[in-house]
Structures are given as C-alpha cells and as structure tokens.
Amino acid sequence: QPEPRSSSSSASSSKMPIKVKQLLQPSASPAAAAAMRGGWLADEVGMGKTLVVTSLVLAHKSRAKRIADGPFKSFLQLSGWGGGSKAAQEAAASAADLSFRGIFTSPLAFRCTVVVVNNTLVQQWADEIKKFAPGLSVRMFFGSTELKRQAMQGLRECDVLLTTPHMIGNAHHGWGSTLL
C-alpha cells in the first residue's frame, strides 16, 4: 500500500519522513503548543528518544534570524571560543559571565536545540539524527578542544547541539551560563 502524502508545502516539513509527519498531527490547543518550550525526555533504552527529539526539532524549527557577525564574534570572544592565545581565551572565558550581560541588551537568539546526553551516547545520537533527518545540521560540544571550537563557531547555523552534563556544568568553559 502506498504511503499517504502530506499536503504541507513548507520547506522543513518536506524534508520530514512521511511516518514522522503522521506522528505530528496539529495540536488540539495551538496556544499551548506555541508556549511549550524545553523539557526532559527520560525514557528507557530503546524507546525512541532520538526519533522523538528529531521529530520535535523538525516540527518546531526556529524562525530566529541568523545572528549578525559583530554580536556573534563578541559572543565567541567572551565565551572563550573566539581563537587567539590561550591566555586571551582564559581571560575572556573568566570574564564572560560578568561582561556578557553588559554588552548585549537582549539575549542572542540561537536557533539550535541543545540536547544533553551521556558522553557515551553523543556520537550515537549524532548518527541517529543524521539517519532520521539528514537535512538537520548537528554539532557536538564534546571531545577535543578543536571539536568544541568548531561546534561553537558553527552555532549560528546548527539545528541541534549535542553535549554532555559535564560540559554544561564545566564553569571554566564560560559558555554554560551565557548559552543556557
């Protein structure tokens, strides 16, 4: 039997697998759906957490505009990921919490969804998201310093940022409190 086709013509839903589209029927309460933001998903192994999160990202893609070069460069410098000498990065990272609030009058609107998983699952989640939704841009803030630097510098374009509880709680990176 052929799969039913969706009548939706939006660019993000056209990349969504048909079976995923069928799972994401319009909410009975659009206001409640629009107000929903963030959450925890703590099902047991094998229950489909990656597919659920991927489906939610596809169904609720951010409409945030790309952050301009100037503010983004300042963000990278203040968070310690803008490059330069190790001493300059450490100084910027230690000053990030104090300086960040004074420079920006409103929060930077990143379009990515931050997903926090156990360090043994970061690569598996990245692979699964790419399998379910190859059109999504996935970055990993985990592992080598270079991998983390690439993740931070690609933050404006990424749809999903995978990280670990350790990276979120690591105050010396300077980004946890400014990003979250």
Can you give a write-up of this model?
The protein is mainly alpha-helical and 180 residues long. The protein has a three-stranded parallel β-sheet with strand order 1-3-2. The longest helix is centred in the middle third of the chain and has 18 residues, at 86-103. Helix 8 (145-153) links the parallel strand 2 and strand 3 (160-163). The relative contact order is 0.15. The termini are far apart. It contains ten helices and three strands; from the N terminus they run H-H-H-H-H-H-E-H-E-H-E-H-H.
Descriptive tags:
single chain, about 180 residues, mainly alpha, 10 helices, about 45% helix, about 5% strand, globular, disordered N terminus, disordered C terminus, helicase, hydrolase activity, hydrolase, nucleotide-binding
Give me the side-by-side strand order of the main sheet. Answer: 1-3-2
Biggest sheet architecture: 3 strands, parallel
Cα distance, first to last residue?
46 Å
**Helix share bin:** 40-55%
Which consecutive residue ranges, at least 5 long each, have pLDDT under 50? 1-12, 176-180
Number of distinct beta strands: 3
* Alpha-carbon Rg, integer: 18 Å
Beta-strand percentage range: 5-15%
Number of helices: 10
Q: Which class do the helix and strand fractions yield?
A: mainly alpha
SSE series: HHHHHHEHEHEHH
Mean pLDDT: 70
